């Protein structure tokens, strides 16, 4: 396939947005995501898509390398190993003109500056990733640059909303007043109020939590405006018909039991892919799983190119376009493997998980069950402080706080009926076969990928 015959590719990410914050994925909050919902109606929407790791830098590295974090070297906020092939570099070699907007250092840790033709940093060009109108102009510039080069476009555009600090919060207000890179971020009209929202069931329904989740949802609505402007720019430029567009969130919301963990709400992402003439508008895929380590292989196959060398992922293009190929492969997964190593503070919290398409999920906490306390950015803001305070008098909330801080060595959930992970089934006699099966799957996946936590996991099985 000649370069000019290949499709344009646009990857849009939002930051720290829970999968169920989107109307097309079940959110009932009025007016929350009209642009994402419209795009879902034009796309194939995946109901069982998961990121490989629920933290921003290694998540993006896993997309660009097609490797699990311990395979790429980017276990946390780390560089990828030298010599590893990456998606944007492979596309450039094939004749693509590439632009990266936002999350520049995060995207290919170690050599992002050489991997793209153009890099636009969020602080300089998109109001810290929170300026919806800026995303229209940045998309236009990327398209124009590719046209001037007479090459197909690869654009990775990263929207910071709804990452902390949330819209209207004290943290964002302080940033706007004191940081010149935040100057110009407008106050959002008609923000959601605490009485309008539903608190996620994996949190406690407390007034400060309601206030913060309302701010979060207001940030989601601003993110939706940004997504809408990217899509509008693509349409206005007249390139929609030959453009493969992928939309996703890099992981769940930055509150306890979501971001920087291995729970269901940590890694599940709203994934929508539109490729006119190839994908069926409005189709839902609810019976097969896909992982972000599969993205590079899928994109490259769509572009008529071979996969990255030694990738952990595999193309799910046949599943996307709903057409079998000769080897009958590419139809997604029946389970996904996810992990966590350490957050930005670099304290080790090794976690590994297997989630099956039927809903059973197993988590191994290699650090859990002792005196170690968990620490990450999800504990900033109003939510965790309110839960910790309420736990002083409420035993149920106190138990949730203790679990979050200290964890237990193993957790088993039926996410099909308990997506919030409230009922650990590890000791349930009826679920012992499930436990053994998922432990075996996890052992196999860790062995296949030469996981550095393999021996520790084997030892834990012996101890049990």
DSSP strand count: 14
Number of domains: 2
Assigned CATH class of the largest domain: Alpha Beta
Biggest sheet character: 8 strands, mixed
Shape: globular
List the helices and strands and how they pair.
Elements: E1 8-14, H1 34-42, E2 44-46, E3 49-50, H2 56-65, H3 69-72, H4 87-93, E4 97-101, H5 104-107, H6 112-115, E5 118-120, H7 122-125, H8 132-149, E6 153-159, H9 170-178, H10 207-236, E7 243-249, H11 264-267, E8 271-274, E9 283-285, E10 290-291, H12 295-302, H13 317-321, E11 335-340, E12 351-356, E13 360-365, H14 383-390, H15 395-406, E14 410-414, H16 432-448, H17 454-463
Parallel strand pairs: 1-6, 1-7, 2-9, 3-10, 4-5, 4-6
Antiparallel strand pairs: 2-8, 7-8, 11-12, 12-13, 13-14
Helix pairs in contact: 1-10, 8-10, 10-14, 16-17
Task: Provide the descriptors you would attach to this structure in a database record.
alpha/beta, Alkaline Phosphatase, subunit A, 17 helices, 14 strands
